[in-house]
Each structure stands twice: as C-alpha cells, then as structure tokens.
Amino acid sequence: MGRRPEVFVRALSLAEGQRLQKITRTAKNPVKLRRAVVVLMSVQGQPAGDIAYLLKATDDYVRDVIHAFNERGFDALDPKGRGGTPNKVSETVRDWICVIARCDPRFLGRPFSGWSLSKLRDYLIDTGWVATISIETVRRILHERGVTWQQSKTWKASNDLEFTAKMRRVLDRYDHPPASGRVICVDEFGTLNLQPRPGKAWKPQGRPVRLRATYHRDHGVRHMIANLDLATGKIPYQIRDRKRSSEFLAFLNSLRRRWPGQTMHLIRDNFSPHKHPTVRAWCQANDLLININHLEKTVHQLCHCFVVRNVHYFLRHRQRRANPSSQFARYFEHDLRSYRTKATQPPTTTAQSHIWLLTHAARQKRRQ
User: Fold this and answer.
1) Which end of the chain has less Cβ packing within 10 Å, N or C?
2) Which helix (H) or strand (E) holds 69?
3) Residue 355: which domain range?
4) What is this structure's pTM?
C-alpha cells in the first residue's frame, strides 16, 4: 500500500491568521481549542502525521479537521453539539409556563392568590403540561425569560371622558406658567405622629433598653399642608392639628401674603375641603384661579418622601437647595402611555390568548 498524500490547510490571510491565534489563546471549549491547534500547526507546514503524534490523536482525525476547515472555514472549529442531556421541556411548554406564572391562580381554579415555585410545579404536573419537572428547572425557565418575583403595585385612571384634555391643560400650566402669575400645587399629608425609635446605648450585657411595641399618642396626630412653588422649587408648609376647610383657607391666606399682587394659579386635587364654598368664594375674591388636578401627582408625593424622620429639618434643609421644577408634561405623558399600554395591550401568543379568555370569563362571573 502506498503512502497517503500529505494534506495542508489552505493559505490564510493576515486577518485569518490573527483570528486563529486569538482562538488558540482564548477558547474555553477544549474541542474548539484542539481543532484550532491542528489548523495552526498545519499552517506552519507540519505534516498530518507529526501533528497527530504531538497531539496524541489519529492521523484520520487530523486530516478530517484540515479538510473541514478548507471547506467551511472557521465554522468547522465549533463542535457540532453542546453535549449533555437534551431538553425535556419544549419551547412551547416553556412559553406556557411563563404565561401561567403571570396569571392569577384564582382564575385557574386554585385557592390562593400567588404562585410559589412548588405550587407552580404541582399545577404543571397535575394539568399534564409536563410529566415531571423540578423546582429548579421552573426557576431557571422563568429567569431565562425575564419573569421575576415582584411586589404588586396599584394605579388608577380617571373615568372622566375629558381626562386627557384636562391633564394636558394642567401640564401645560406646569411647564409654561403665565408671566404675570405664579403656579402653585397644594396638597395635604397626614397623619403625622411621633413614634418611639430604637437607638443604641451602653448597657450591661444581656440587659438592653426595651421599648413598648405599642404606644399612646398623648398629644394626638398632626397634618401637614404644603405647597410646591414651581418657580423656585421651594415647599412652604404648615403643621396643623386637623385638615379641614378652615385650616386650608388659613394656609391660602399665608400664600396670599407671601406673594401679594400676583395672580395665583392653584393646582389641587378633589379633596372635599378644597371645594368648600367658603374656599371658592375666598379664591374668587383674592385673585386665585383654581385648577383641579386629576393626576394624583401633586406635592403629596414629594411630601411623602420628606416625612421620614424629621419633617422640619428636612424641609428647611431642602429649601436652601431648591431648584425650579419643569418638564412635567413629558413624564406624565410617558406614565399615561405606559398605563394605557398595559391595560389594553392585546395577547400576542396563543397561550396568552387562552389565559386572557380564562381571566375575562372569571371576572364576568365574579361581577354577576
């Protein structure tokens, strides 16, 4: 039998040679690294027999790698399969698992309001989606498709048919205040109360200071009435025992004294003291134009984060560093668009359509 003819890798360009050297330095897969070494040694002029001897491989293996590289290029270096046991859960079933996880269990006949991994696994097995599956597999499927465990959040929309027009009118007043007036947002925050806070002190070992978990509000509670001035970003406020129309009217009097001679555009919500006849009459007599804010995003949310530990200290600290507020319309339009998209977005897959129909039928049944 004659000697087999020698076989070598085709001539490589400079860029291909640099790419091949990089693969031999950085490849993590041992199969790809071994094939790249075979090709690199063949490029350097070494015959197939010598390469097989150095790598402890067969001559046929070296020849097959060289022929495959000459035909398919760098794709021939990648292994055919990733190895391991094939997936027992198909892609369709994985999509269904994510859809079921996002659905309310009560709409599927389960007596609880939230899925745990073990309950979701049991439901998938009981309903025949899978014969068997582990909790870890369910967790990895949800993680790979971006379904995470999150806390529920609430939002609400107005039933007013003219909501969009009113919203844009208020937001335009925010971003483009009149030159001869001042736009102010008024809201209340409460109830505020003094709570005992745990601290640290030097005490004998094993005998810390104890505070009662329950406490008495000996002096009642307080309410904060505040105003956000969009021109300066400052928040004038008052702490009062109650938040009736009389307290609200006294606060408006203080604002009128603060900015005399200016037309004040008052942005407020639908709280009943704001609509009291005495308040309306006073505003009409003192050049205050009332605008009702239906967006629930007035100074109330700002005050909510302020009243954490010390209201007076924090607000006085912020007053010295206040900046004008603007660009309200862009943020509110984005929020409104996202809410409407979430509320009206149609199902995009067969699985989502099925779950949507189940949910809709259950809601109709509950309403009846």
Assistant:
1) N
2) helix 59-72
3) 334-367
4) 0.45
